[in-house]
Each structure stands twice: as structure tokens, then as C-alpha cells.
Write a structure and sequence with these properties.
The chain has 166 residues and is an alpha/beta fold. The chain has one domain: P-loop containing nucleotide triphosphate hydrolases (Rossmann fold, 3-Layer(aba) Sandwich), CATH 3.40.50.300. The protein is 33% helix and 21% strand. The chain is built from 5 helices and 6 strands. Strands 2-3-1-4-5-6 form a 6-stranded mixed sheet, sandwiched between helices. It is globular. It binds guanosine-5'-diphosphate and magnesium ion. The site of magnesium ion has 5 residues, from α1. The site of magnesium ion (MG) has 5 residues, from α1. This is GTPase Era. Its main location: cytoplasm. Keywords: Cell membrane, Cytoplasm, GTP-binding, Membrane, Nucleotide-binding, Ribosome biogenesis, RNA-binding, rRNA-binding.
Length: 166
């Protein structure tokens, strides 16, 4: 069984960190600086019976120039190519305009969306629950999975969910 999964979200939410963790090697470029991930970098997670092709995307932001515009559209273009979208948001920053912009595009795309709330190592459980409740008021998600991509917390669960949806 196999499937395509893209990871979408604002810059610096931890998309590349998750991909690196899942693949167990540094395949995407990581940095604190926004916009280091310029291309769709694919990692293929393979077990005996399953194959998940991950597509990392440039962080979605309000484009200031033609290159920015191209990168944002290239991230959105993956919505037409994948079976599942991981919409990643940080647990420690309130939903903002950038997230709302992404949510509008996700609603237009006819693809299941899993909300991945990352960086749970940085917040109190109450703040995590409030964040999840807030995003749930905006859109119906297929699943909601809190993780720490950095520490690897709950990433196995996320993989299990993706596998069960292949
Ligand atoms: P991207 O722009 O969405 O690809 O984000 P990156 O993967 O490049 O991560 C941006 C920053 O967030 C880096 O400094 C990461 O180390 C940090 N980061 C990513 N995931 C986590 C996490 O789960 N917890 C914490 N504390 N930091 C994280
Ligand atoms: Mg990145």
C-alpha cells in the first residue's frame, strides 16, 4: 500500500524537522531562518508493506515578490497531488492571519487534512488543548495529532494514522 502526504504550514513550524525525524536522516534543510526549504523535497518512508511519499513544502507566508509567490503556489500545488495533507501549526503561537489564509485554501481543496500541532514540548497541556479547540472552530479535520517533531513525541502515532489511511 502506498500514499502521498504533503506537509503544509507557515515557516518555522517544524515541517522539515518532522520529515527529518521520520526519515531518520537530514534530507531537508533546516534553519531558524524562514524560507530555507525552497523545493518540494520528497522523503519516502518504506516498510515491508507500506510506502509513504512525504512532500516537504516551502513555508506558506504572504508573498512579497515573484519568488515568494512561486514558492507559496508550489506549496499549494501539492494539494492536488496528495492523498492526505498534514497541516502543521505550533502549539506555542496563537492562530494568525497566515494560518487563516492556509485554512481557506485547505477548505477549497478536496483532500483529507490532519491537523498536526507541533512543539508540544514548549507548552502546558492546557495551552495545547486551547490551541486544538481554537483550530477546530475553523475547519473539520480528519484527525488532530499533537507532536514534538524535535523530541519525537507521538510521531509514531502520526505514522500509524497515516498508514491506517493508506
Ligand atoms: P519549517 O520551516 O516548518 O520547515 O521548520 P523547521 O523544521 O526548519 O523548524 C524551525 C525551528 O523550530 C527549528 O529551530 C527547529 O529546531 C524548531 N522545532 C521544530 N520542531 C520543534 C519541536 O517539536 N519543539 C521545539 N521546541 N522546537 C522545534
Ligand atoms: Mg522547512
Amino acid at each position: 500500500k502506498s500514499g502521498f502526504v504533503s506537509i503544509i504550514g507557515r515557516p518555522n513550524v517544524g515541517k522539515s524537522t518532522l520529515l527529518n525525524h521520520v526519515m531518520g536522516q537530514k534530507i531537508a534543510i533546516m534553519s531558524d531562518k524562514a524560507q530555507t526549504t525552497r523545493n518540494k523535497i520528497q522523503g519516502i518512508y518504506t516498510t515491508e508493506n507500506e510506502q509513504i511519499v512525504f512532500i516537504d513544502t516551502p513555508g506558506i507566508h504572504k508573498p512579497h515578490n515573484a519568488l515568494g509567490d512561486y514558492m507559496v503556489e508550489s506549496a499549494y500545488s501539492t494539494l492536488r497531488e496528495v492523498d492526505t495533507v498534514l497541516f502543521m501549526v505550533p502549539a506555542d503561537e496563537a492562530r494568525g492571519k497566515g494560518d487563516n489564509m492556509i485554512i481557506e485554501r485547505l477548505k477549497q481543496a478536496n483532500v483529507p487534512v490532519i491537523l498536526v500541532v507541533n512543539k508540544i514540548d514548549k507548552v502546558h497541556p492546557d495551552q495545547l488543548l486551547a490551541q486544538i479547540d481554537d483550530f477546530r472552530t475553523q475547519m473539520d479535520f480528519k484527525e488532530v495529532v499533537p507532536i514534538s517533531a524535535l523530541e519525537g513525541n507521538n510521531t509514531e502515532k502520526l505514522l500509524e494514522i497515516l498508514k491506517s489511511n493508506l
